[in-house]
Amino acid sequence: MAEDLIEEVVVQLLRESATTLPSDVIEALHRAEATEESEVGRSQLRTILKNIDAARRLAVPLCQDTGVHVFLVRGNADAAVERSILSGVARATAEIPLRPNVVHPLTRENPGTNVAEGLPHIIYHPADDDILEITVLPKGAGSENMTALAMLTPAQGIRGIKQFVLDTVVRAGGRPCPPTIVGVGIGGTSDLATGLAKQALLRPLDLPHPDPVIAALEEELAEALNLTGIGPMGLGGSSTVLGVRIATAYCHTASLPVAVNLQCWAARRATARIYPDGRVKFRGSPFEP
Ligand code: SF4
User: Fold this and answer.
1) What are the pLDDT digits (tens) for 78-104?
2) Among 177, 262, 263, which residue has the most ligand 1 atoms within 8 Å of its CB, making it the best to mutate?
3) Which of 123, 144, 256, 273 could form a disulfide bond with 139, CB atoms 3.0-4.6 angstroms apart?
């Protein structure tokens, strides 16, 4: 597949995700505004919705923190795909523009391109077909900094999982810019659980988990979290979360890893499918047909 086509698609994905939220997120914010019990909370949601509308009309980023970039690539990807993603991120940073957020962890030196050792983070899922699917999930620091991992004991079970999710969201308070989407990774190893928590954020809010037990747990947690009173931007109210999204993996019989990855109201994501004949389809998530 041509490198310049992939680079162009990456730039478009970054532009789309930076300036426009997926429709399921916007609908969830409208529902929250309609049901929010606090006047201050409602006014925060109204401001958020106006901000979203202005960003889309003016084609400017929704938030000054345009995040660091996580990519999921599904398909038969070679080194050329990775080169195209890196050059696409550097180009988008200059052209859109995106804030150059990526710095060395110790010296804080900033290359200015959002491309450096380890970032963007690219996760590959091999596939047999000839379609290349690229998804981007920009993560702002306010929500990413609230990530938490617990290595529970199997005896702590579902009760322990619920307590950990509640404690994490309450401890985060207003810092992740609520209403948030709460990604929960359950099982695997410590690193797998943390990755699952982030990848769980890719499932749209109007798409329930296919396992009814997990779907019910997501609903139960969302209801409980909306009773915490944290509210929009942490200023109080009944809209603390837009939803909870859980992803699971089997784990060691002696382990129960649980990770939480919060996503702020600016829940940006975008997906593109590139077909062998050069056609490109853009979607709000890899779950959309
Ligand atoms: S947490 Fe999200 S909405 Fe808040 S400043 Fe960061 S990117 Fe923006």
Assistant:
1) 999 999 999 999 999 999 999 999 999
2) 177
3) 144
